[in-house]
Amino acid sequence: MNNQELNTALYEKMFAEQDTYRKWLLTQPPEEILNHTYEYTIREDILLSLEYHDLTDAQAAALLKSPSPLADVFKEFDHRETDHMDQIFYAMEERADDVLEAEEKQRRILRETPVYRYPASYAREHDELEQYRASHKANVACKEAIEAAISAHYSDNRLGKQAALEVIEAFGMERTMYVLANTVRHKDWDGRISQNNKSWARTIPVFEDTDPWGHDRNTEFVVDKSHPGLTDLFVDQARREQLLRTPLTDEEIQKEAQRLLTVLRAPKEPNSPNGTHFMAQISPDFLARASTNDTDRLMATLPFRSTTFSGLNDRKGHFVLISKDEDRSQPLRKLRRSVRKDLQKTSAKSAPAASKKHKQERETR
User: Fold this and answer.
1) Average pLDDT value over all residues in the chain
2) Pairwise CA distance, residues 331 & 327, whole Å
3) What's the whole-number mean pLDDT along residues 53-78?
4) Are residue 64 and residue 157 in the same domain, yes or no?
């Protein structure tokens, strides 16, 4: 026999051996079949390999001498050290990385999709339906993320602080607050939502958006799978996070300075741990929002020469301290206007005005 005939004879013998093995396997109980799954698969791969490769005359003749060449090759393979498991783990890593990359791409799209505040009728009139639909889809996804975050972070009768942060990071502050405002406005009747949050929601413009059958499309991104009380707590968290990310105004710096002055004037005797200074704790919320320049301006507003800003080893927070010899009856110094903020306001005034149509939409709302 020539080489082709030898390889064909070997393949036919192995094929018949595999067919006999398969018929035997099908007579076994399911558990036994599962035990032989790996062997059956490898034997199939051996046959497939022989379809695409030829052994030498001597190699083919050698294997033909065996009554069960397929079983012999399987045993040889089974005893070998291969990178099979490494390849499986590599494939697992690759798949996981692909999923993570796709998820991050989707998160980026959701974060970067602008909030479209106008109804579908306006979008259709101005050829902006694509923007409207993308924004509406992101609103619905944000609503679902809020419900998932509440479910994941509620335990022991409290809502974890990470709940709002998780959604804000994924969808941005503007969309998160827009979806929450829409939710609260639709739940204005619900006594489990605080009046404070209802008043806030009314300050956020949400246009009516009805379809031709009178259905309110805005109901599609109302948080409704979470308990209203927990939704209210989530709104509190989100509003606080928004406040902490909002730059301080001159009025807020002045207000904090006045509060500190009042606290510094209150005690009759020095209240520092060593009894040498009067002290007052700076509001943690103020510090969370303050830039270095804001803190410097706060200190400059206080009318004392010995003003220092420091932490204390045995107490949490940061404090303003003044010498016990200071005249605490002095009024606050006038807060200097921020040149930077003045320039920013001037720049904002010179920016192009919103379109007349958009202004009319706001005025009619």
Assistant:
1) 91
2) 10
3) 94
4) no
Asked if residue 115 is part of any domain, the answer here is no
Both 239 and 255 in one domain: the answer is no
Total domains, the chain: 3
Which runs of E-coded beta strand occur in the chain? 154-155, 158-159, 277-281, 308-312, 315-323
pTM over 0.70: no
Q: What is the pLDDT of residues 135-187, one digit of tens each?
A: 999 999 999 999 999 999 999 889 998 999 999 999 999 999 999 999 999 99
Place of tokens 């956020």: 204
Domain that holds residue 19: 3-78
CB-CB contact of 301 with 332 (8 Å):
yes
Q: Which residues contact 299 (CB under 8 A, 6 or more apart)?
A: 307, 309, 320
Tokens of 330: 């002095």
Q: Measure the CA–CA gap between 309 and 322, rounded to whole angstroms.
A: 9
Instruction: Write out the two tokens for 183.
Output: 């939710």
pLDDT at 364 over 80: no
Which pLDDT score is estimated for 360? 43
